[in-house]
Amino acid sequence: MLKKTIRFLYSMKFAILLLILLAAACVLGSVIPQKQSFMWYLSEYGTRGGALVVGLGLDDVFHAVWFLVLTVLLCCDLLACNLLHLPGLLAQTRALGRAPKAGEKTVGAVSGVEKPEAVFEKLHMPKPKRAEADGKTVLYAAKNRAGVWGAWVTHLGALLLIIGFTMGQATLTEYTVMGVPGKTCPVGDTGLTLTVEDFDVAYTESGTPQQFTARVTMHGPEGDRSGTASVNHPASLYGFKIYQNSVGTAAKATVRSEGGTVAEDVLCPGDVLQIPDTPLTITFEAYRNKGFGGSGTVPGYTFVLENGNSGERYYGEQAEGENAEFDYGVSAAGGEGRSVRSYEVRFSEPRTATLLRLKQERFTWLALLGGLLTMLGLILSFYLQPRRVWAVQDGEGWTVSGECRKGGALFYDRLREAAQTGEKEETTDAGC
Amino acid sequence: MLAAENVLFTVAMCLYFAAMIFYFLFTALKKEKLSRIAIGVQALAFLLHTAALVCRGIGAGRLPLTNQYEFAASFAWGLCLVSLIFILKFRFPVLGAFLTPLIFLVIGYAAMQSREIKDLMPSLRSNWLGFHVSTAIIAYGSFGVSAVVSAIFLFRSRMKDEGFWGQHVPNREKLDLISYRSVCLGLLFLTFTILTGAIWAERAWGSYWSWDPKETWSLITWIIYAVYLHLRFNRGWRGRSAAIFAVIGFACVLFTYVGVNTLLPGVHSYK
Ligand code: HEM
């Protein structure tokens, strides 16, 4: 029973089952919107349906444990399949080059052939070997022996591809940085910083963007390194690939109090400005080119004002050209009593900012190698189909037989044609 | 150039229709000569269709493979190319009677799309796009042929071996092999499509695989055809089950092509 189970686990039937399950998982992963909130699934699929979706991990199929288990099982199956078939394939490759034995498997035979060499020639096997067996002369030739390895190479390629992709995802380091020329931003917690030196948008004649190009410098322990990232042409600095990912709008934020400017900076969406001597912070959310003012046609800005960790939060809006005002009680100098100060926030001068994606992915080469091997394997499997032809002297004439593991019926047609007509074969290798 | 494209495209579409009628007449009247005319008309339509695509490419100053119209027109072109190859290589003109309606349908769908030439967004300005889409066209065309051959396979047992159908439609074993050949061609090109798409996505968006619906559906299609190949190794499942999978595979191709763009969101929707 155990043996049977193990044999099933390494069988092609199980491989087919795994592939079908993976395909079904992919269907679910593409049809059910992924990575939404629990509440979203409840509202979309009802209480039971939503709970089921989240409980089964269908809200993030491609990172669910069961999806990983299916993938690992497929990898084990691929590995086992390749290991188990290795001796057989070596033997097959050798056997293709040997003289045929009596009772050899064949797609069919044509007897009464007068010039067997011509048949070999027509089948693109111009130099058959000669041997003597049971007192009879035998001519034999093989073609496309490398094709024996097609499925093996495909399986190896698929295995490396899956391993490369999975390990790449598991060890991925990724940050996004949004900046405008002159601004320096930290790169996550790496200790590196990045300055956007220049950002250029090239337009076509009709005014649509043609290319976004950011010139950047990374500052780190080994000094400054500069490069250019544009769409389809990432830069490589400090082991990171830097992609020109998207664009957004930054704006200048000015905070004034009692007639003087107390804080000012250019903020990209998500950036925070601290108001000095207070726990207050202003987070810039977004610029929209309409939706503000009395008529709703004026451009404007949205931001969040926060009072330290107190949980006090105010969502603010400001139309272009106006100010947002608020009061805040600050401790008087010397810590005695509190006074209320009025603040004015003004966002202005919206400008295009670049969104850069910084990535360190370690196993891309393995996935690429896997992909290329898969291609090679498919070419070997499909277009180098191993075939063998032999002719045995039989009284006056010769009997020509052939073997082609795949496409026997079509190959027999070719064999017959080659044996019976004087015309040269036109069919390519694909028509084994 | 674009005016020439319009004329060539319309004439090619009419000729596809004419080829379809000739193929139907061939199967109805059972006259060999009609099959030769049908193949000739289809080949002529193909040449004009090619010329239309070339004109559009010159007119737009880029490969005509970037919007819904261009891709549909190219899909029909790929389907026609592969079908002609298989009709001639396997001397199987009856195939044309089943494939020309499909070609006509796809080119008709193309004709309904907007032909306006718009500037390309920056991420589409890549040489990888050319490789990615042109290989997809051949892959889709091959899968179309395999689905039709497999569908014929499923009905072959109802055809008598003697007479017109017996003479003009290969036996089940050969049909299975012809379908296999076109799946091989399609799968090879689909693998190339996915690989070049991944390389392009890596350069443009910084991620070679992000489970975008179009990517996911091309993987589903790829898996379905891998299952097809394995089914063929099993004597009990070869033939009927494999043929059913070839048809399901093409349904996935169509969904990847039309359904994903219209029903599921992602970076591949041609908006
Ligand atoms: C990603 C998954 C897989 C892919 C893409 C794949 C692909 C292929 C291809 C292309 C062939 C050659 C088919 C042909 O020449 O017509 C093949 C054959 C085969 N596959 Fe797979 N395969 C996969 C998984 C597996 C697994 C997990 C097994 C485990 C049992 C397996 C077992 C076999 C066997 C036994 C053959 C026949 C080999 C021969 O006799 O030449 N495959 N596979």
Largest sheet of chain A: 6 strands, antiparallel
Question: In percent, how much strand structure appears in the residues of chain A?
Answer: 35-45%
Tell me the number of strands of chain B: 0
Radius of gyration of chain B: 19 Å
Q: Uncertain regions of chain A: pLDDT < 50 for 5+ in a row? A: 422-432
What distinguishing features does this structure have?
heterodimer, A: alpha+beta, 6-stranded antiparallel β-sheet, 5-stranded antiparallel β-sheet, 8 helices, 19 strands, 32% helix, disordered C terminus, B: 271 residues, mainly alpha, 9 helices, flat
How would you describe the overall organization of this protein?
The complex is a heterodimer of chains A (432) and B (271). Chain A has 432 residues and is an alpha+beta fold. Chain A folds into three domains: 2-31 and 64-86 and 153-170, no CATH class; 101-142 and 385-426; 173-360, no CATH class. Chain A is built from eight helices and 19 strands. In chain A, strands 4, 9, 10, 11, 16 and 17 form a six-stranded antiparallel beta sheet that branches. In chain A, strands 1-19-18-3-2 form a five-stranded antiparallel beta sheet, with helices on one face. Chain A has a four-stranded antiparallel beta sheet with strand order 5-6-7-8, with no helix packed on it. The two termini of chain A are 41 Å apart. Chain B is an all-alpha fold and 271 residues long. Chain B folds into two domains: 1-114; 123-271, no CATH class. Chain B contains nine helices and no strands. Chain B has helices spanning 2-29, 32-60, 68-89, 94-111, 127-156, 163-168, 172-205, 213-232, 240-263. In chain B, helix 5 (127-156) runs antiparallel to helix 7 and helix 7 (172-205) packs antiparallel against helix 8. The chains are: A alpha+beta (432), B mainly alpha (271). Chains A and B meet through helix 2, strand 7, strand 10 and helix 7 of A and helix 7 and helix 8 of B. Protoporphyrin IX containing FE sits between chains A (11-12, 15, 74, 77-78, 81, 150-151, 154-155, 158, 378, 381) and B (226, 229-230, 233).
